[in-house]
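Worked example 3. Consider a protein that binds zinc ion.
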Amino acid sequence: MHNEPAVIYDFSTIDFETPGKRHYRLAFHLDSAWGYSLAPLTVVRGAAGEAPGIAVIGGTHGNEYEGQVAVKRLCQDLDAEAMSGLVILIPQLSESACRAGTRVSPLDGVNMNRAVPGNAHGTVSYRISNFVKTQIFPRVRVVVDIHSGGREAVFPLCTSFHRLPDPAQFAEIARAARLFGTPFLFVYSRQMASGLLTDEAEDEGKIAIGGEFGSGETVNPTGVLHAYEGSLNLMRHYGLLPGEVRSIGAANQRQRLIQAPHLKDYRPCPRDGVWEPLAAPGADLAEGELIGRLHDFSDHSSAPLEIRAHRAGVLIACYAAAVCPKGLTLFVIGEETEFPA
Ligand SMILES: [Zn+2]
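Given these inputs, the predicted complex is written out as structure tokens:
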């Protein structure tokens, strides 16, 4: 018989310490009615010994599904008897957004990945984020937050992180991020947004890894494979699971580290229009190369606006939906750089 996960009202009663695997539903009270957002959480405390803690999170954005599927599989598959250390798994962090299939929570309109470190007395998204900051982060060394492009953006399959002032932390993050076996690793600007889950984790000195494992509100099986197997590789690398790190997907695939540190390489859509993308995500572009066309149907006899690369580099992100409002990021061009030693 399958026992449903225990509902936890008092988070100090979550058992992070006893060897074994436990599934929970964390009850975050609603702001609008009597009731709860029941956020799923699984604790795997290895019985075999000590190792650094790892948290793997999916569903920070509700319309990005590869992380939700991969983390749910980890909840089922991990065997505490064979493991060391602590793994904390949250397949649907913004549980309300995941159930609605939306980027932000329909309960408070908040983007969970702009809400960290949260607020113990804020709306539901801020309280969930505050739980991560106060209950998860202190117990782990590594934080993985699995994203995909959602409705608008498409990236080549990549893990992602920021350039950090501490070169040792940056090098360790790059090493850990490579274990996901993705063809690209994307070093993006912290100035594009604030309040990210990984921002807060890296400020605490943790090994914080994000990534884009699909797009278009679908489940990309290759993305799920890399998110799932990459998480297992992390557990092997840090000694939570026995055995050697394994290659994922296409064996010996070259990995490229692409950085886009300057905001001028994140190009906003110049006017409302219908976007016809022409260059593939991950493509090498020459300066002036055609990336896509923006169509204005208020005058169907008008020529489209041709959108061309403002510089040479790699197309590391591109708008994917047809309708593109003025100001949204239409594309990002990065440059290839060396992996840190
Ligand atoms: Zn996301």
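Take a moment to read the result before moving on. The chain has two domains: 6-259, 264-335. The chain is about 20% helix and 30% strand.
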